[in-house]
Hints:
Layout: H1 2-16, H2 19-47, E1 51-57, H3 63-67, E2 72-77, H4 82-91, E3 96-100, E4 107-110, H5 117-138, H6 143-149, E5 157-158, E6 164-165, H7 167-204, H8 207-211, H9 217-251, H10 254-258, H11 264-275, H12 279-307, H13 315-336, H14 343-348, H15 355-362, H16 369-397, H17 407-415
Amino acid sequence: MKQLRLIIIREYLTKVRNKSFLLMTFLSPLAVVALSLLIGYLTQLNNSTQRHIEVLDESGYFQEVFDKDQSLSVGYHKEGNLEKLKETSRMDNSYGLLYIDKAASQFQFFSEDTPSFTFIENLQGKLEKGLFFHNLEKASIAPSQIDEAQQKVSIALTNFSGDQSSQAVGWLKLIFGGTAGYLLMMFIVVYGNMVMRSVIEEKVNRIVEVIVSSVRPSILLLGKIIGTSLVGLTQFVIWVVIAGFLFSFLSSPMATEVAPTCDPYFLTNIITEINSLPLAKLLISFFLFFIGGYLTYSAFYATIGAAVDSETDTQQFLFPVLLPLILAIYIGFFTVIEDPHGVVSVIFSYIPLTSPVVMLMRIPFGVSWGEIILSLALLYGFFFLAIWVSARIYRIGILSYGKKPSYKELIKWLRMPN
């Protein structure tokens, strides 16, 4: 136990004192926020760009629709030569030319390049609206009658316990669950690679030969994995503290004074909705699933590091390790968000290699502690199996040089007696 403790402390201090750890811990959140703001700004800039098109509408049904549209600059023509207008549009660098025949049954858009999907969708919506009003006029129905007949419905969401929520809660659950699952996957990949590089470095520098003369390979493997996991947890705790301070600031009256343009009721509603989420359960689960998921995958990463002589030789072994994580993200974003309590979501939240990501995405939508405990029990049970398998390969691999092993050789190492 003393040797294990020394290895854990050495691995932890070596990585925490590294400048890259400090930069990653304090600059990564700022980089994510800055990148999100930049993407939002560029999206808004792209959406605010006004495009000019020419419209040849031989039917004459759509003039009012285009006149009311402020987001699009339109040169409207009820008659004219199609070929000449095409040439004029090309010479004037217009975004394109829309042609509508007399019966309003044929619609054709001419442009230099393929127009964006969103633009065509919006244009089709305007044309459908124009046809709708024209058909109402033919049937002698006033548009005001349609407006009076239409009525918006707002559904109040209440669970069987009587707790009320709103549709905004659904979006917040989606954001929190997706972010937690994605962050966990990134943590596993980043710190798993850190363990693998550390093993390769010690193996190449022949340091490991000195270490294993006084420490059992299985103890060395476990110490590396636990030490690096504590680094990840330290980073996570720092981020939670920073997020807590930010959340407290947004909850205070000072936030409205600093940002007077922001609607205080909007901020209050968002804070209220966030408080209604199972934040404590989400944080505790993230902590436990991170440890279990990281320990399991790090055992595989350390095994890969021990089996090869350089990082370039790891590619053939990394894909099978990353595949369950990729599958978990896919299941999370395309299945859990749509049906968090469906059969597929539940099954993959119990499979140890996918449960850390999938279960975290399910928790905001309401998962009992019984399900979480069962999933954790399966995950940690699988970890002990993974560490046993990895240790048997690790003890041979760290002292093997000069040859790139195959899967067949790894199985042979696994079967070798102590």
